[in-house]
Design a protein that fits this description.
Elements lengths: L9 E5 L5 E6 L9 E3 L9 H6 L5 E7 L2 E6 L5 H17 L12 H4 L15 H20 L2 E9 L2 E8 L7 H16 L6 E4 L1
Parallel strand pairs: 7-8
Antiparallel strand pairs: 1-2, 2-5, 3-4, 4-5, 6-7
């Protein structure tokens, strides 16, 4: 394929979560909205994620679009391993090895978290649909910039429940993001309908 002729580049980018580093490629890496692996068993459908879990400091791997966000254990500092990981990912891609070889299991629906936008069930009410549209259009792009993802879970008693993934999960600033960013957007766009936004 002609894509092989384009020189591949990878750069590392810090995220608001100090335990997560984002590795960004100049090409799309996965054709799904996102995929998250919390251990090597879950990573069976991704040769790249499986290989990354062989690094003893890799805790979780999150992939979306053109980036991979790696969550590390606190046994090393990013300064000592970033270049090694960047080169490892670059070599994998330059050798033409696949990033994903299968479709992620529908774990999201089993967890009652939202599937990708196109798979939202028709049984959702008008308010839930509007919340999902706002999250997709205004929140997801910003969260992706930080190496993460946000998924709608539920709307009950004027409280929006969301699931934070990738770099956003466990991030020290995620509470601030939820309270000041997402809550403000939803309250501005859906006045009187949203009192709070909480992670699950």
């Amino acid at each position: 394929m002609d894509i092989q002729r384009v020189p591949i580049s990878i750069y590392a980018e810090m995220t608001p979560n100090p335990a997560v580093m984002k590795f960004v490629a100049n090409k799309r890496l996965v054709d799904v909205d996102h995929v998250e692996f919390q251990n090597i068993e879950e990573a069976a459908i991704s040769p790249l994620a499986t290989a990354l879990f062989h690094f003893p400091f890799v805790k979780e791997v999150f992939m979306s679009g053109n980036f991979i966000a790696i969550h590390k254990f606190n046994v090393v500092e990013w300064e000592t391993v970033t270049q090694e990981i960047r080169q490892f990912v670059l070599d994998h891609l330059q050798e033409g090895k696949p990033v994903l070889t299968g479709t992620p299991a529908a774990k999201a629906t089993a967890d009652h978290s939202a599937p990708a936008k196109e798979a939202v069930p028709a049984s959702l009410g008008e308010i839930e649909t509007r919340i999902i549209d706002i999250l997709e259009e205004y929140v997801k792009p910003a969260v992706a910039q930080d190496g993460g993802n946000i998924a709608f879970v539920a709307y009950e008693d004027k409280v929006v429940k969301v699931q934070l993934q990738g770099a956003c999960a466990g991030c020290p600033s995620s509470t601030l993001t939820l309270q000041q960013g997402i809550k403000n957007i939803l309250q501005r766009m859906l006045p009187t309908l949203v009192d709070d936004v909480v992670p699950v």
